[in-house]
Amino acid sequence: MEIINSSIEDIDKIFFLYDDAIEYQKKVFYKHWGDFERSLIEREIKENRLWKMIIANEMACVFSLSFNDSLFWKEKDKQPSVYIHRIAINSKFRGSGFILSIMEWARQYCKTNGKEFIRMDTWGDNPKLINYYVKCGFNHVDTVILDKIEGLPIHYIKNETLALLELKV
């Protein structure tokens, strides 16, 4: 297994994984992601913030990193952190514990890049997923209500509750 930057040549496979993840989300929860703007994904690829996990020459997982998230994290955003977004796992590999692999990779990334926290968010009314992330080592530090949604992907809606999770490196 290796985690490397995605390239523009991966974009169709990335969207396939997002579509697959949306179908899975529809089966296990009443909320799901919407379609992502191609320009967002292209920008993340160009900025080296979209990562892929490769197993046996196959894209097993993709996820995005950001380094700011003041909309959700408010004052805590000033702390040096990596924010993980949009983890999409290839259905052939679902249930393989990739969150733990991503966390270990992110720990090393943080140490190399002077970051103190790994952070994530998820829907605040999904206790099963929140509990899973807590079992993986994250702390559920807060639940916030979204009051601004401009510029966010379509699955974020006004007055939505979000669970904020973090792991100190």
Descriptive account of the structure:
The chain has 169 residues and is of the alpha+beta class. The protein has a single domain (2-168), classed as Aminopeptidase (3-Layer(aba) Sandwich), CATH 3.40.630.30. Helices cover 33% and strands 30% of the residues. The chain contains five helices and seven strands, in the order E-H-H-E-E-H-E-H-E-H-E-E. The chain has helices at 11-28, 38-46, 70-73, 98-113, 127-135; strands at residues 2-5, 50-55, 58-66, 81-89, 117-123, 139-145, 161-168. A seven-stranded mixed beta sheet has the order 1-2-3-4-5-7-6. The longest helix is centred in the N-terminal third of the chain and has 18 residues, at 11-28. The protein is globular. The two termini are 22 Å apart.
**SSE string:** EHHEEHEHEHEE
The Rg value, from CA coordinates, equals 15 Å
CATH topology, by name, is Aminopeptidase
Low-confidence sequence ranges: none
Biggest sheet descriptor: 7 strands, mixed
Give, in spatial order, the strands making up the sheet with the most strands.
1-2-3-4-5-7-6
**CATH architecture classification:** 3-Layer(aba) Sandwich
Helix/strand class:
alpha+beta
Estimated share of beta-strand residues: 25-35%
CATH superfamily: Gcn5-related N-acetyltransferase (GNAT)
N-to-C terminal Cα separation, in Å?
A: 22 Å
The average pLDDT is 91
The number of domains is 1
Q: What characteristic shape results from the CA principal axes? A: globular
